[in-house]
Amino acid sequence: MGGYALGTLARGEGHRLHVHDRLGSTNTEALERFRAGEAGPLWVVAHRQEAGRGRRGNAWVSEPGNLTASLLWPVEDVEPGLVPTLGFVAGIALASALAACGVAGCRLKWPNDVLASGAKLAGLLLEAENRPGGRRAVVMGFGVNVAAAPQGLPYRATCLRQMQYDTRAEDLFVSLTDGIVDAARLWECGRGFSRIRERWIADAAGIGASVSVRTGDTLVHGIFETIDEAGRLVVRSEDGTRRTVTAGEVHLGTAATAA
Q: Same domain, yes or no, for 181 and 69?
């Protein structure tokens, strides 16, 4: 299928691209190719995704005109404890790609969303897999509402078209593939996460404001202070104590007080 292409930096780094008319899930396709011996870096793109996955197993259907892409990334040379920080690499790469396409005002929501005026514009999903022989890889999944926003969600969502941008998914993808190369160079297999962290914080939503994080039956509420050197959310409670959160359902601002 035509329309999608890699950026100059991505081609120079040896990235490859497979484009499909439709898939159940681009992440699943990338993982299956890894299991079959693919090493990556390999981009998998679908014009329509019909059985995508969000965090916590939420279904994610992407309509034509939206960007649905996954990147298979080898991590054999990355310390296992640093692998999850690739999620922040993906976040700043997508923020950079949106800015390169002229889209203003986007913010990164911990751990894996992109917001525009408080509404969800994009989501990220990181999935890791280990195979016999020491083969290890991560798939970074990107879902961006370019032409349409999903309906019937428990939160606000938007798309670039609603925001009065005429950016095409194909154009955004080119910028994203080059943005990943830039961010990965900064990351240096996790050794440079402090630089990624600085970039992420500069584009973060909700720092200094109220936040609530629900993990199972536990609710943590306070002020979103920062993310730490491992990428964990740091929440300061009313009594000044600080708690770090590894994962959970996050509500910012006025939504935090209602959570």
A: yes
Nearest to 140 by CA among 65, 88, 193: 88
Question: In terms of C-beta density within 10 A (0-12 exposed, 13-18 middle, 19 or more buried), how is residue 165 classed?
Answer: middle
Q: How many domains does the chain have?
A: 2
Query: 79 with 114, same domain?
Result: yes
- Tell me the per-residue pLDDT of 65-93, one tens digit each, with 9 for 90 and over: 999 999 999 999 999 999 999 999 999 99
The whole-angstrom separation of Cα 163 and Cα 212 is 28
Does 1 reside within a domain?
Answer: no
Domain shared by 91 and 37, yes or no = yes
Q: Choose among 94, 196, 192: nearest CA to 141.
A: 94
**Tokens encoding 90:** 């993906």
The contacts of residue 102 (CB under 8 Å, 6+ apart) are 165, 167
Give phi and psi for 111, each to the nearest 5: -95, -10
Q: Would you say the pTM of this structure is higher than 0.90?
A: yes
- CATH number for position 217: 2.30.30.100
Q: What's the Cα-to-Cα distance from 215 to each of 212, 221, 247, rounded to whole Å? A: 10, 11, 7
